[in-house]
Amino acid sequence: MWKRKALKKNTRGLLKRSYWRMIAVCFLTAMLTTAYAVSTTFLNLQFSAHPHYTDAAFSTGIPNSEVIEETIRHFLEHTPMIRLLQSGAFDITSLLVDLYSTNFSVFFSSLRAANAFLTESFSLTVFFPLAGLILAVLYQIFVSNLLIIGEKRYFLENRNYRQTTISKVFFLYRLRCIINPAWIMFCRSVFQMLWNLTIVGGIIKHYEYILIPFILAENPKIDRKDAFFLSRQLMQHNKWRYFLLDLSFIGWRALSLLTLGLLDFLYVNPYISGVTAELYAILRRNYVLSRSSRYEHLSDSFLEHVPSEDELLISKALYDDSQGPYTKISYFAPEQYPVFLFSVQPPEKAVRPPLKADRKYAPGACIFLFFAFSFLGWILETSIHLMRDGSLLKNTVLFGPWLPIYGLYGTLALLLLRRFLKKPVQVFVLCTALYSVLEYVFNSVYELITHSALRDYSEYFLNFNGRIYPGGSVAFGLLGCAFLYYLAPRWSEIFMKRQKAVRILINSSLCILFAADIAVSVLPLFQ
């Protein structure tokens, strides 16, 4: 038997111990998935009425309520029911839709594609929303769902291992265990969507399926039927009590709405996630101890039992004798989960020594990374515009497949922030500030030269002269951290393995193409 007060008390203790890490994990999950829609409200809040296109690269673009309104107009245009769109009830519904949903969801991408087919004449542009829908589906299956499982894994380990790292969110990618968890989460979404059509059945199944991400976090190789069976068994006689547990957070939810989601970031998300992890731990422990049906699939005993130093030494010696993938690399981090004892082991080629993010980069590597990050920026923004707006990227200065502001931002971060890399939170804040200054200057110079705005963010809450806004700066802060801690070391390592002549040829070719693009695209602006 479990009690809400005990769950919450244990979680508050964990928050005191690992506050910043728990916040960072939920922040990452909120920014990269559809799990915490309200949390991003204050970052991307728009005041403009009916904005049909936004210059913001990482914002939600057209509000979801407007997408629904457009769809309704297609079918009710010449009927008396069209008056519902002018009612106060619809305004309240629109507000709730925008607060509790995200534009990167499959559902709203489907509506965008449908609206495009209903309004546009048949041409190539009609297929852009369809491409956006496909990208949204793939992102949901292979990124969003897997990161949600990674978040659950972090909270399960953090209960007993106080130095659990934020990177645990990406543990499925490190294990190269992607297809099976992605398939099970996809099935869960489909089944939930179908049950939602019955309304009451949807509520019941929501709580029946709610522990599937935790089960996959413990055993990513579990069979689909076993995962659904175990979640159903664990929640048997607990669905109503879990519902009451959710209701007990209603005060925190209300306060979060009053702060436009800011309180979610600072406390509510890690608090609720920690409580649900505590509940899962209790339910699985009782289930395993009772030797109930298929309990052997809940096989990660080290989530509950923290091995002593002697146990670790003996286990590592036995592991090395078996020539496992971690044999050549020591993973004896203090107060962290012993990854070499996890039931799922990665392929040997996937196990590498930890990256040294604070390395010194050669001038040739910096030049290559400038272009690599510029190209990555073009790929990201093109993909996001396809998913969000169903159109290709519009507001670019150069013709080539690169956005130099990304390259300049990444290069400056490498040169200026290397000394701070041992403090990730500080690096994130500095990356956010660096990009804010860089984009403000970039947009101001462009407007001074051309007398027109390249990117106008004036419809966003807390924008600064329409040139920067919080959501964009925060998104680039995360991107900068990814570049500094993972992408730059990896790409630099690959580039520097090439022969010197090849490196010179690559950089020279890129510089010539870039200079030619500037000559064709930028110089006419001064005339």
Strand-helix topology:
Layout: H1 4-32, H2 41-44, H3 64-76, H4 88-99, H5 106-119, H6 127-158, H7 171-175, H8 179-196, H9 200-208, H10 212-218, H11 224-234, H12 239-247, H13 250-258, H14 262-289, H15 309-321, H16 363-389, H17 404-416, H18 424-450, H19 470-496, H20 500-521
Helix pairs in contact: 1-6, 1-14, 3-5, 5-6, 6-8, 6-10, 6-16, 8-9, 13-14, 16-17, 16-19, 16-20, 17-18, 17-19, 18-19
State the shape.
globular
Q: Largest sheet, described in full?
A: none
Uncertain runs: none
Order of helices and strands: HHHHHHHHHHHHHHHHHHHH
Number of helices: 20
Fraction of residues in helices?
Answer: 55-70%
Report how far the terminal alpha carbons are from each other. Answer: 77 Å
Count every beta strand, where a strand is a DSSP E run of 2 or more residues: 0
Backbone CA Rg: 25 Å
> Strand pairing plus helix content: what structural class?
mainly alpha
**Overall average pLDDT:** 86
Indicate the proportion of strand residues.
Answer: under 5%
Describe the structure in your own words:
The protein has helices spanning 4-32, 41-44, 64-76, 88-99, 106-119, 127-158, 171-175, 179-196, 200-208, 212-218, 224-234, 239-247, 250-258, 262-289, 309-321, 363-389, 404-416, 424-450, 470-496, 500-521. It is mainly α. The longest helix has 32 residues, at 127-158. The N and C termini lie far apart (77 Å). The model has no long low-confidence stretch (mean pLDDT 86).
